[in-house]
Amino acid sequence: MLPIVPDGSDSAPGSRGVYSRYARRYARLVTMPTHTPAASPVPDVTASESTLRRFLHGLPGVDAVGLEARAAALGTRSIKTTAKAYALDLAISMVDLTTLEGADTPGKVRALGAKAVRPDPADRTAPATAAVCVYPDMVPVAKEAVAGSGVKVASVATAFPAGRASLAVKLADVREAVAAGADEVDMVIDRGAFLAGKYLKVYEEIAAVKEACGTDARLKVIFETGELSTYDNIRRASWLGMLAGADFIKTSTGKVAVNATPANTLLMLEAVRDFRAQTGIQVGVKPAGGIRTAKDALKFLVLVNETAGADWLDSHWFRFGASSLLNDLLMQRQKLATGRYSGPDYVTVD
Fold first, then answer.
1. What whole-number distance in Å separates Cα of residue 129 and Cα of residue 137?
2. Does residue 259 contact residue 290 with C-beta atoms inside 8 Å?
3. 294-303 and 64-74 are packed helices; what angle lies between their axes, rounded to 10 degrees?
4. Where are the domains of the chain?
5. What one-character-per-residue DSSP string does 179-240 give?
6. Phi and psi dihedrals of 96, rounded to 5?
7. Which residue numbers are catalytic?
8. What is the pLDDT of residues 40-85, one digit of tens each?
9. What whole-number distance in Å separates Cα of residue 135 and Cα of residue 280?
10. Which of 58, 60, 232, 287 is most buried, most CB within 10 Å of its CB?
11. Among candidates 34, 50, 45, which has minimal Cα distance to 243?
12. pTM (2 decimals)?
């Protein structure tokens, strides 16, 4: 296994040139394989509760101070103007534009879908977002709104956000979303079971949900990192989710006090990097909740580039779970192009 906490030798504040490398590396993605050969596959560790526990608790402990220091240092990287323009467009293309409220209406979802397809109606060069994320009953409306655009429709499921329901109810939730046409399913793990050490139960639920997704819908597994208490638990949850078949691992629901942070996202990026090194399987990462400004989003892209690498600099492997973030990305994009802000009415209020 590769070291989980790097030595920080490339994280000195003031280092330059990060974003100037993005365009060159991104251009190579179309010729890069999405999987690398497995040199040392992870053995079957899910045969019993004891073997799974032994594996998860055998993962290296997280150096919390080192992790947070590296995340903070990477956040100081400078950004050149030309690279910033590229990075803003990249960030827009990675947004899962989301509405998850009890008061959601078909009209609101249609409006959100229109914004996802054309985020800036005044500028056709602005890229579309990656997806629209809604509740299962709104999937048909969202599919119609983004039809023919390439924008995906994601649906939360498994009794989101608490996850307090029987497995039968959770699987019915997933099947409803997939049957309605969801391209992606965002599930929540049973945090109570995880914190009680019932790892096999959590593993089996994720695997069952993955099976219910079928062959067409990708699965994002939400850990609710703010409720997992420790970085060690976040690392364990990351490996547990990937072993069970997650296509993405996701920090949060956005419904609790502590959501995505640079440190917990860095830790998850290290996990997907190391998982691919061992298995050859690439898994995506989605920080969600609390990322509201373009400045914050660009810091997260630095984390991706410097930790997991260029293979993850694509909406197929990295997403932002946010809505208000898109507005600031558009404002900063317009400022970069014209030299001025157009005011708060330049973008729609979601």
1. 21
2. yes
3. 120
4. 41-338
5. HTT-SEEEEE--HHHHHTT-HHHHHHHHHHHHHHHTTTSEEEEE--GGGS-SHHHHHHHHHH
6. -95, 100
7. 186, 250, 286
8. 556 689 989 999 999 999 999 999 999 999 999 998 887 777 799 9
9. 33
10. 287
11. 45
12. 0.86
Bridge partners, 249 (sequence order): 221, 285
In terms of CATH architecture, what is 41-338?
A: Alpha-Beta Barrel (3.20)
8 Å CB contact between 259 and 222: no
Round to whole Å and give the CA distance between 199 and 203.
6
Phi, psi (degrees; rounded to nearest 5) at 313: -85, 65
Residues 197 and 228 sit within 8 Å (Cβ to Cβ): no
Three-class SS state of 133 = strand
Q: Which residue has the tokens 């499921």?
A: 157
Contacts of 323 (CB under 8 A, 6+ apart): 95, 97, 98, 99, 112, 350
The three-point CA angle 230-53-50 to 5° equals 155
Q: Express each pLDDT in 290-347 by its tens digit.
A: 899 999 999 999 999 999 999 999 999 999 998 789 999 999 999 998 887 765 555 5
Q: Which two tokens stand for residue 286?
A: 């989605």
Q: What is the model's pLDDT at position 345?
A: 55
Cis-peptide into 161, omega within 30 deg: yes
- Residue with token string 């019932």: 198
Count of CB atoms situated within 10 Å of the CB of 189: 26
